[in-house]
Amino acid sequence: MFFSAENTGGLLNIFTNRKGGKSSAPFNSLNFGFATGDDLQNVEENYRLLSKKAGFNKPIITCKQVHKTGIAEVQEVHGAIEVNNGTVSGLFNPLNKNYIYSRIKADALYTETKNLPIGVYTADCLPVIVSDKKKSFVMAIHCGWRGVVDGIVEKSFVFLQNKGKTDFEVILGPAINQCCFELKHEGNLFDPSSVKERNSSSYVNLKNEVRLRCSNTAKDLIKIDDIDHCTCCNKELFFSYRRDKTTGRHINIGCLQA
Ligand SMILES: [Zn+2]
Fold it and tell me: Of the CATH numbers 3.60.140.10, 3.60.15.10, 3.40.50.10680, 3.20.20.70, which one belongs to the domain with range 2-256?
């Protein structure tokens, strides 16, 4: 169920694998994507299973990801969940208290609320979890190549620095690696050190690109950890949009611990 679930002094981060869920092929089996074509009831059951295993007592919050650079601020105010200062609306089954899928379009989520899991979906894109030394906040960022070249990494750190945050700790989750990430025409949008040309295609190292952009923007970056597995190479453990097109989505969660 978890590819990695680490509790590091105040922050729980979870990167799911595709095993241990209820969905059938081609979404087998731990699919968290609602817009994939999978049976909604199976997806809901997957959230329930994950919440139980992780011990969450609040719903997992996600937003509508659109490969852009929007940031959503999530908080709990007097027991109600708010996204961007409005009471949450969206796909939420009141009988299933395990998740809220907000209609707000955002590819990065931010919270300072303890025990409130926030997450981003991926199937090849790079999930990035950011926190600080004090674990005073957590941010989950969906880094697809479009969002990255449009500046979601820079925008996220400017947002954090405007809030007075410092001493950043970054975790890069499993994503498609350079071995499999071929772009025909967009190689020139990346730093030259992130691109290898082969057979008139560009092979992009998205993690290298994100690392560079983190280092260039974050004033005091303490560390960047990397869970280094290629989602496209490993069909056993990972969904891959590139490889399979119709497939499931992983969820990648950051949750501040009380
Ligand atoms: Zn690969």
Answer: 3.60.140.10
Q: For residue 56, report the distance from its CA to the centre of ligand 1, in Å.
A: 33
The secondary element (H helix, E strand) that includes residue 104 is strand 99-105
Pick out the chain residues at pLDDT < 50: none
CA of 36 to the centre of ligand 1 (A): 22
Break the chain into its structural domains and give their ranges: 2-256
* Distance (Å) from CA 171 to ligand 1 centroid: 20
CA 169 to centroid of ligand 1, rounded, Å = 26
pLDDT tens digits along 144-168: 999 999 999 999 999 999 999 999 9
